[in-house]
Write a structure and sequence with these properties.
Elements lengths: L5 E6 L13 H4 L2 E4 L1 H4 L9 E4 L3 H13 L5 E6 L8 H8 L4 E4 L4 H8 L8 E4 L5 H10 L2 E5 L6 H10 L5 E6 L7 E5 L1 H5 L7 E7 L40 H11 L6 E5 L5 H8 L3 E6 L2 H13 L5 E4 L14 E4 L6 H11 L3 E6 L5 H10 L3 E7 L2 E6 L3 E6 L3 E7 L1 H4 L5
Parallel strand pairs: 1-4, 1-5, 2-3, 2-4, 6-7, 11-12, 11-14, 12-13, 14-15
Antiparallel strand pairs: 7-10, 8-9, 8-10, 15-19, 16-19, 17-18
């Protein structure tokens, strides 16, 4: 379509009323689409057809039919900035950007942070509107400055209950009716928020860590979450550990490559030891739960996470018994297990959405681990990793110091292997 026939208006999140089209756009409009509250917010000319926005597909079909029949331009009302997790994406895909005139108002996220006097260029923004709530929960677990756009079935109560079950220490700011006379901005704990009934009009929930961490120490260049670390597979001395019980850097590098940790996902680190793998996954933005049966090692995991400025939830207990208490992971690293290794791998494989990575030294265990991965419906693969490091000798020369061989085995969900994972 060569002309702009759809005017998309952001209904003033930050102001008292929607910023409606002016000039001759309104008189010429034959169809106005929006939520009931937006349609009722202005007096439309007689003869203008109104369509309450519900499921998106029928609304797009109605807009297309209206335009095809030549019944005049269309006005679409949306909240805040309709190009930010809004209807502009769907309209642009269906009708092309050239058909759209977009008149945004302030995004609800910007207004919510403004009410607190905080910048938000370093915040992670995640939408739970019409989407799986688990992604928002994982982002809130891993990051300390998050805005969640809520929706039916994924509101403040559901989000707060999930965070409370996970033992996440955060402050929630629930912003409802932003820019209206009924606006409320409430600060409360996840437990308190979980026990409340919230109106459907809630638009955004901020999930915040300690106050001292909410103000960026220096100007930023890139908006959003911190970029991926510049280096990974950190040296062993970057982690406190017991008797060299730490996953070696070379092994950790391959494990991280197969785990593929990222923001919005949950990783289990089973038999965590020092927690080096879990901590590195958290540095990539993933939510992490470390399971360790030894209380002293569990304390080391907490200390290592704190030293690297990341959040890792630590469960002190034995797998596979404690795994039933945890939400399903996207990826799992198993670095310990003893005689229960096959059972642990099978349970992790059954629960993992994407993959399981296992490291072990004993060749005798390889077959049973592969069988456990296969029994859980994963496609098994692996390598024997052998590496030698340069070690100094007198006379400013070096030798090769061989490390112990380690099997790195993994199993991937077939849909992921075929590239169907979204």
């Amino acid at each position: 379509m060569a002309e702009r026939v759809i005017t998309v208006v952001g209904a003033g999140t930050g102001g008292p009323a929607p910023s409606l089209p002016d000039g001759d756009a309104v008189p010429d409009a034959g169809l106005v689409v929006g939520a009931a509250r937006h349609l009722e917010s202005a007096a439309w000319p007689a003869g203008v057809r109104r369509l309450v926005l519900g499921p998106l597909a029928p609304a797009l079909d109605a807009i297309e039919a209206h335009l095809t029949e030549g019944r005049g331009p269309v006005v679409v009302l949306a909240s805040g900035d309709p190009g930010f997790f809004g209807i502009v994406r769907a309209l642009g895909e269906r009708f092309g950007p050239a058909a759209l005139e977009v008149r945004p108002s302030s995004p609800s996220v910007a207004v919510a942070f403004a009410r607190l006097g905080l910048s938000w260029d370093d915040a992670v923004v995640v939408s739970a509107h019409g989407r799986d709530l688990r992604t928002a929960v994982n982002v809130c677990r891993a990051h300390r400055k998050v805005a969640v756009l809520t929706g039916p079935g994924a509101g403040p109560g559901e989000l707060a209950a999930a965070l409370d079950r996970a033992g996440v220490t955060r402050e929630l700011v629930v912003a409802a009716g932003l820019g209206t006379e009924s606006e409320t901005v409430q600060r409360l704990s996840p437990r308190a928020a979980a026990g409340r009934d919230w109106p459907d009009a809630v638009s955004v929930v901020l999930c915040l860590g300690p106050q001292r961490e909410l103000v960026a120490a220096r100007p930023r260049t890139l908006a959003g979450p911190p970029p991926a670390p510049a280096g990974w597979a950190l040296p062993e001395d970057a982690f406190a550990h017991r008797d060299s019980m730490v996953t070696k850097a070379e092994v950790r590098a391959l494990a991280l490559a197969r785990l593929g940790p990222r923001t919005g996902e949950l990783v289990w680190d089973i038999g965590a030891g020092s927690g080096s793998v879990g901590v590195e996954c958290a540095r990539f933005g993933a939510a992490v739960v470390a399971v360790e049966r030894d209380p002293r090692d569990a304390a080391r995991v907490r200390a290592n996470a704190a030293a690297h400025g990341v959040d890792v939830a630590v469960i002190c207990g034995a797998a596979p018994e404690v795994l039933g208490e945890l939400p399903d992971p996207d990826a799992v690293f198993v670095g310990g297990g003893g005689q229960e290794l096959a059972a642990i791998v099978a349970e992790c494989g059954r629960r993992a959405r994407r993959c399981v990575v296992v490291t072990l030294a004993a060749v005798d265990r390889v077959a049973e681990v592969r069988a456990a991965l296969r029994s859980a419906g994963l496609v098994p693969d692996g390598v024997l990793l052998q590496s030698s490091r340069l070690a100094p000798l007198p006379g400013e020369v070096v030798r090769l110091a061989a490390g112990n061989p380690v099997f790195v085995l993994w199993g991937s969900r077939p849909a992921v292997v075929e590239g169907a994972h979204a």
